[in-house]
Amino acid sequence: MVGRAAQRGVTYLALLILVAVVSALLAASAQIISQAQQRDREKHLLWVGDQYRRAILEYAKFAAGADTYPRELADLLEDQRQPIKRRHLRRLYFDPMTGGNDWGLVLNPQQRIIGVYSKSRLKPIRTHGFRAPYLNFRKSKTYADWVFTVGEVKPGEGEALEAPVAPMPDDAKPLPEPPPAPPPEDAQALPEPPPPEPLPEQPPPEPEPEPEPEPAPVEPAN
Q: What residues contact 216, with CB distance under 8 A and at least 6 apart?
């Protein structure tokens, strides 16, 4: 009786140990998956933030004065300051870290937008590997410190950000080149050039004269 009770106790203890090991493995796996997903969102945030910064720079190239920078992000979709409307951004991208479209805005003294940043208070995983103009991201404590602003751009910088590993949105991928336009119906086809005239035949070369035979020796006179 005592032996059976001890055996049941050992079996129960082994079962508890097995449950604890499986729980620890599941927790470690969940943490690894969560970090991998966060890294993907980081890469996407770098790409999206850079798209906004580039669009603001592009917007500023076509005007001067108080209207140099946009009043709201929607102005980047349809720039109406010129007779020909321009589109500096394909669409308003969401914040990969928060999942929303409520970006933090960096304003200049004229209350115009010169940059954006995420409002996420999470601590970044990435602490190195940044390129200009985002070298200061290495010291960031939260994602809110990743500020994508034209105010940080220096001469010669702004085009060195590497492409993200995370997949880009479908509408942000390069559009296929359009097929060549067919010629107009009233266009006349150019006449084909005439074939080249044949060259006149050259007369055959004259045969070389055969060498004269060697003269016979002359006998001396007696």
A: none
Q: What is the pLDDT of residues 111-122, one digit of tens each?
A: 999 999 999 999
| Residue closest to 89 by CA, chosen among 44, 133, 46, 57 | 57
Lowest-confidence range among 7-11, 101-105, 161-165, 187-191? 161-165
pLDDT per position as a tens digit, 143-177? 999 999 997 433 333 333 333 333 444 444 433 44
Whether 47 and 54 have beta carbons less than 8 Å apart is answered as no
Rounded to 5°, the CA angle 164-172-76 comes to 110
* The 3-state secondary structure of 15-40, one letter per residue: HHHHHHHHHHHHHHHHHHHHHHHHHH
Alpha carbon 15 to chain centroid, angstroms: 52
